[in-house]
């Protein structure tokens, strides 16, 4: 959801990069079994459990749907915590880089698909949200070598609106609350589309600027000549810093 984003950063547990200011700026590699990754793993485990709870007894038992809502809420809360912990304590791993965005998309995607399957949510709503989330995930990999688009207020509002709306649909609400959840979901869909289009615009601009900078650097005399190991060092620093930022920016 979402993302972001969260423990999606880092390396493979190898020796930290050395050398001058770049070495000092590099993020130290963290153990796989750190608290941020454990929270991400917990979210992944919660996904099948959430689906079972939501669809139990045909999917319309208020008690079981309350249990499903609790699992969904825990998953969304752990998403916030693992991101905060990873950014604060530099808990950087290759596993987190891959697993965190998967966990974010898995819990939200599972909820949307199940709700549409049960007839509670139109399929087009599920399609719009999933298309945006998966599309932006692919696009951030397209531009990550050029930089990271900072997280926007709109993106954070989108994540909050999506989580709130889906949570309200998971609960067996009736009366005014059932009407309210429709409008909350409408706001979530609008924010999903608007922030997605804005991300595409920023990604295109960032890529153009990055390509222009590369061409300018290549045109300079002596361009491409760097001290031995500098390219590898710079790439490691960019990967460690950029992966976490891109996951957060995606939100």
Automatic annotation (TrEMBL):
Q: Name one GO molecular function term.
A: CDP-diacylglycerol-glycerol-3-phosphate 3-phosphatidyltransferase activity
Similarity comment:
Belongs to the CDP-alcohol phosphatidyltransferase class-I family.
Its annotated compartments are: Membrane
Query: Can you name this protein?
Result: CDP-diacylglycerol--glycerol-3-phosphate 3-phosphatidyltransferase
Q: Respond yes or no to whether keyword Chloroplast is given for this record.
A: no
Fetch the NCBIfam families from UniProt. pgsA (TIGR00560)
The record's keywords, sorted A to Z, are: Lipid biosynthesis, Lipid metabolism, Membrane, Phospholipid biosynthesis, Phospholipid metabolism, Transferase, Transmembrane, Transmembrane helix
Q: What is its EC number?
A: 2.7.8.5
Gene responsible for this protein: pgsA
Coiled-coil residue windows: none
Pfam families per the UniProt record, alphabetical: CDP-OH_P_transf (PF01066)
Topology in the membrane?
A: Multi-pass membrane protein
Enzyme superclass (EC): transferase
Q: Which residues cross the membrane?
A: 35-55, 67-86, 106-131, 182-200
Where in this protein does the record put region Disordered?
215-251
């Amino acid at each position: 959801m979402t993302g972001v984003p969260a423990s999606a950063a880092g390396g493979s547990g190898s020796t930290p990069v050395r050398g001058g200011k770049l070495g000092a700026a590099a993020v130290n590699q963290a153990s796989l079994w750190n608290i941020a990754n454990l929270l991400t793993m917990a979210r992944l485990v919660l996904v099948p459990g959430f689906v079972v709870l939501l669809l139990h007894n045909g999917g319309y038992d208020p008690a079981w749907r309350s249990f499903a809502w609790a699992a969904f809420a825990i998953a969304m809360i752990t998403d916030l915590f693992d991101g905060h912990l990873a950014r604060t304590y530099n808990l950087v791993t290759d596993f987190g880089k891959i697993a965190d965005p998967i966990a974010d998309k898995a819990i939200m995607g599972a909820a949307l698909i199940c709700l549409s399957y049960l007839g509670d949510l139109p399929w087009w709503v599920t399609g719009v949200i999933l298309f945006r989330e998966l599309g932006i995930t692919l696009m951030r990999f397209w531009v990550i070598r050029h930089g990271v688009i900072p997280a926007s207020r709109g993106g954070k509002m989108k994540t909050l609106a999506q989580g709130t709306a889906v949570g309200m649909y998971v609960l067996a609400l009736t009366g005014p609350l059932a009407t309210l959840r429709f409008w909350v979901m409408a706001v979530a869909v609008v924010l999903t589309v608007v922030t997605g289009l804005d991300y595409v615009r920023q990604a295109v601009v960032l890529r153009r600027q990055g390509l222009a900078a590369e061409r300018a650097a290549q045109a300079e005399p002596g361009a491409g000549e760097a001290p031995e190991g500098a390219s590898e060092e710079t790439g490691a620093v960019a990967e460690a810093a950029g992966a976490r930022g891109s996951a957060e920016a995606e939100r």
